[in-house]
Sequence to fold (107 residues):
Amino acid sequence: MTDFKDRERAEEAKFAMDQDTAFRIAARRNRLLGEWAAAAMNLTAEETDAYKKAVVQADFEEAGDEDVIRKLLGDLTAAGTDITEADIRAKLDEMTIEARRQLMGEA
Fold:
């Protein structure tokens, strides 16, 4: 019985760690996306810092990435860039890989 409880606790701990890692990767990815979008919109350094935070916040609106994509697309379109939704989705994939690489490099 003790082995089962130990195994159960280990699985719960692993699940919690996996969730935490996924959250940290998504937050870092969103900051990287915000930085990329801010550069495309020619924002100042101060505006870029604020924009990166706004992109991270946008991810809390709903589950998944659609809220972030919607924010970026709206802002980039309003700024007069020619960046498309497909460009944003490709950059999202690229930045997810980069965020994971950065995070694992810190470990």
Notes: The mean pLDDT is 91. The longest helix spans residues 2-40.
